Automatic annotation (TrEMBL):
It comes from the Eukaryota. The lineage of its organism: Eukaryota, Metazoa, Ecdysozoa, Arthropoda, Hexapoda. GO terms for molecular function: protein tyrosine kinase activity. InterPro entries: Focal_adhe_kin_target_dom_sf, Focal_adhesion_kin_target_dom. The keyword Cytoplasm does not apply. It comes from Acromyrmex echinatior. Residues 154-164 have a biased composition (Basic and acidic residues). Residues 165-193 have a biased composition (Polar residues). This is Focal adhesion kinase 1.
Amino acid sequence: MEPTPTADLDRTNDKVYDCTTSVVRAVMSLSQGVQQSKADQYLELVRRVGIELRALLSSVDVLVEILPISAHREVEMAHKVLSKDMAELVSAMKLAQSYSATTLDAEYRKGMLSAAHILAMDAKNLLDVIDSIRIRYPYVDSQICQRQSNVVNRTRESTPENRIRSSQSGEQFLRRSQSTERQGTTFRQSQSGDLLHRMGQSVDRSLPVS
């Protein structure tokens, strides 16, 4: 399953975009650990996905008050799907741990990889939902950009430079990738989408088809 192209919106200080990329990266790390049968690391890898997913959902929650009521339902549905995905990933992890030393190890690892990939795809879908609202309602887009800019400015004023350096470098990485993408077409494959594509290929190659 291929990720959809992402709208070419202003990603400067875009918390939802940033968090989506973090979720996908966490899922890719989990995927690598599962492929290498590192059962003792499964819990920590899943915990990291959960932390990044919680940050993504929180970044969406703070935007709800400026979204039109007519758009609340689609955001809520995408939100609920991710909560269900996380529960299914935890269940798949427990099975993979239980059968890690048996002949069924490969089968249950494959199930865990599948659950993780679905979660990453649905995280990307939540980003797409927010993007579609921004496109349909330009005033929402302008408010989101302004709000995120204000939040970052307040953070920079109240936080010592050495404590925000890592987050700034992450923002700069996204900006650099975005500036390159803006030289292309109106729609482009997002960083998270590209990571999803590579992760899907990796999952397909990782384990034999049963």
